[in-house]
Amino acid sequence: MSCDPGETVGAFLCQAGQVLRAAAIENPRLEARLLLGHAMGATADQLIREPRAPVPPEAAARFRAALAARLDAVPVAHILGSQGFWTLDLAVSPATLIPRPDTETLVEAALELFPDAAAPLRVLDLGTGTGALLLAVLAERPRAFGVGVDLVPQAAALAAANATRNDLAGRAAFLAGDWDAALAARFDLVLSNPPYIESAAIAGLMPEVARHEPRSALDGGRDGLDAYRRLVGILPALLAPGGAAVLELGAGQREAVEALATAAGLVPAGCREDLGGIPRALVLRSAPEAGEKKSIGGGAAAH
C-alpha cells in the first residue's frame, strides 16, 4: 500500500507503519501512533480524528529521531519515558526493568492474600526497580506502608520519583542497598521480581531486552536460581507472623524454587498463573510454629 506524500499526521503514520512492519516490529501501527503522539504532544484519539493535520517541523524532527531509536531496538517505553502498570503511570529508565503485564500477576496474588482494604499492612519490595509492585499494592491498600530496596541507587531514586508521581510518597520509602542489609523490621507482605534468566540465555533474548535493559536485573546465574537462593535464606527473618512472600517466577521454575524454599524452612502456599498460563506468582509462608494453624494471614493462597 502506498502512502500519501506530505507532512500530515496520516502520511507520517502510514510511512512509519510500513517501516516498522518491514523491521518485524510487532504492532507497527500502534507503535507509530505512540511515537508520533509523543513527538506532537497529542493523544492517539487526536491523531486518528485528524489525519490531515500538519505535523510541525519540530515535531517531525522529534518523531524521526524516535523512529530511528525504535529501529535500533530501543524499547518504546524508554523513548516515551513512561510505562503503564496496574493503575499507575511509571517513569522508566535504562537503570530498571520495564514493568510488564505478567508482573501484575503478583499484585493480584498479593491482594487476594490480604483482601481487607483497610488493613495497615507493612510491605517490602526487594529489587524494587521502578517501584511498580510496591506502589501498585499501596494504591489498592490505602492504610498500607511500604519500603522498596534496590541495589542500584538510580533505580531507588526513580522509584521514589514514581511514588511522588502517583501521589503515594507519603506511604513509601526507598533505599539503595543490598536487599536486607539495612532492614531490621518484619513485614506482612514481601514482594520480589528477582533476576531469573540463565546467564547463557541473555544474549538470545529480544534485542530490546538484551541490549537496553540492565543485566543485573536479568541475570539469575548459571541456572537462573541464584537470586532465589538468596531470597529463601532471608525471608524467614523478614516475614511477620501471618505474613507471606510473593515471588515472580520464570517459565518452568516453580518446582525448583519451591524445593529451595522448603529446604529453607518456608512453606509453598500456591502459585498464580499469568494470562499465558505460566506459573508466575509463587506464594511462600513461614513454617507454622507448634500449635499454630497452617492457614494464616488474610485470604486463601493464589491458584
Automatic annotation (TrEMBL):
<comment type="similarity">
    <text>Belongs to the protein N5-glutamine methyltransferase family. PrmC subfamily.</text>
</comment>
<dbReference type="Pfam" id="PF05175">
    <property type="entry name" value="MTS"/>
</dbReference>
<feature type="binding site">
    <location>
        <begin position="193"/>
        <end position="196"/>
    </location>
    <ligand>
        <name>substrate</name>
    </ligand>
</feature>
<dbReference type="InterPro" id="IPR007848">
    <property type="entry name" value="Small_mtfrase_dom"/>
</dbReference>
<dbReference type="GO" id="GO:0003676">
    <property type="term" value="F:nucleic acid binding"/>
</dbReference>
<dbReference type="GO" id="GO:0102559">
    <property type="term" value="F:peptide chain release factor N(5)-glutamine methyltransferase activity"/>
</dbReference>
<keyword id="KW-0489">Methyltransferase</keyword>
<protein>
    <recommendedName>
        <fullName>Release factor glutamine methyltransferase</fullName>
        <ecNumber>2.1.1.297</ecNumber>
    </recommendedName>
</protein>
<dbReference type="GO" id="GO:0032259">
    <property type="term" value="P:methylation"/>
</dbReference>
<dbReference type="InterPro" id="IPR004556">
    <property type="entry name" value="HemK-like"/>
</dbReference>
<feature type="domain" description="Release factor glutamine methyltransferase N-terminal">
    <location>
        <begin position="15"/>
        <end position="81"/>
    </location>
</feature>
<dbReference type="InterPro" id="IPR040758">
    <property type="entry name" value="PrmC_N"/>
</dbReference>
<feature type="binding site">
    <location>
        <position position="179"/>
    </location>
    <ligand>
        <name>S-adenosyl-L-methionine</name>
    </ligand>
</feature>
<feature type="binding site">
    <location>
        <begin position="127"/>
        <end position="131"/>
    </location>
    <ligand>
        <name>S-adenosyl-L-methionine</name>
    </ligand>
</feature>
<dbReference type="Pfam" id="PF17827">
    <property type="entry name" value="PrmC_N"/>
</dbReference>
<keyword id="KW-0949">S-adenosyl-L-methionine</keyword>
<feature type="binding site">
    <location>
        <position position="193"/>
    </location>
    <ligand>
        <name>S-adenosyl-L-methionine</name>
    </ligand>
</feature>
<feature type="binding site">
    <location>
        <position position="150"/>
    </location>
    <ligand>
        <name>S-adenosyl-L-methionine</name>
    </ligand>
</feature>
<feature type="domain" description="Methyltransferase small">
    <location>
        <begin position="119"/>
        <end position="201"/>
    </location>
</feature>
<dbReference type="InterPro" id="IPR002052">
    <property type="entry name" value="DNA_methylase_N6_adenine_CS"/>
</dbReference>
<dbReference type="InterPro" id="IPR029063">
    <property type="entry name" value="SAM-dependent_MTases_sf"/>
</dbReference>
<comment type="function">
    <text>Methylates the class 1 translation termination release factors RF1/PrfA and RF2/PrfB on the glutamine residue of the universally conserved GGQ motif.</text>
</comment>
<dbReference type="InterPro" id="IPR019874">
    <property type="entry name" value="RF_methyltr_PrmC"/>
</dbReference>
<keyword id="KW-0808">Transferase</keyword>
<dbReference type="InterPro" id="IPR050320">
    <property type="entry name" value="N5-glutamine_MTase"/>
</dbReference>
